[in-house]
Amino acid sequence: xxxxxxxxxxxxxxxxxxxxxxxxxxxxxxxxxxxxxxxxxxxxxxxxxxxxxxxxxxxxxxxxxxxxxxxxxxxxxxxxxxxxxxxxxx
Length: 90
What we know:
Helix content: over 70%
Radius of gyration: 14 Å
Number of helices: 3
């Protein structure tokens, strides 16, 4: 149970960075709150980490560039998806 909580807390902390980076790589303005950006980033960090572990690049001897690229790409996709759904409701 302790590692599950650590994973969630780590994901939220990573979401503080991954979410805004994912938003930054998207062109234009996204109508999405900062809180939702962080939550999308946290989800992307957790799922991206799992994907990176699954394909065997989750832990390397240096900086895990491939894992971070996957996480940022997922965050960008999540922000674009969420921003697109909020725009269509307005």
